[in-house]
Amino acid sequence: MSKEFYISIGYTVAWCVKYIFIPFMVAVAARIFVEKLLQPQPDRQKKKRSYKNRFK
After folding, report:
1. pTM over 0.70, yes/no
2. Tens digits of pLDDT across the chain (56 residues)
């Protein structure tokens, strides 16, 4: 096998990493971050007053 064969494999791997794997991983990380950030927070429950203390 010649040196040019290994160089072409290296260029192919570098191209795949640059244009496929990195954008895919960034998209997945952004989606996870946005889902965590925009997750609705549960509202605090208001403390209910008992009817006994209402008209004292």
Report:
1. no
2. 789 999 999 999 999 999 999 999 999 999 999 888 887 766 655 566 566 665 65
